[in-house]
Amino acid sequence: MGIVSAITFSLKINLLSKKDFLKIKKHFFKFNLPSKISKYFSKKDLNKLILFMKKDKKNTDNLINLILIKKIGKTKLNLNFKDKKIYNFIKEQLIN
17 in helix, strand or coil? Predict the structure, then answer.
């Protein structure tokens, strides 16, 4: 579920190609791995999720630090985002 959210966010910010995104997502579906955040959380959990993410030790300067996927086998470290951007992304994922 976390990896699928990470690849979806990576795709949204144009870090990951659509081709690699689809390959990874297909792998998750093939093995019936959890992939929908909305199955485990609802919109009422959104503020708790953001609060939890903000408490992560990797964060600096009130930004949420994420490790995202650049392509299969390659990550991008230390990408910092304002909590509003993450909030909006997770909200969108919970609705869809």
Answer: coil
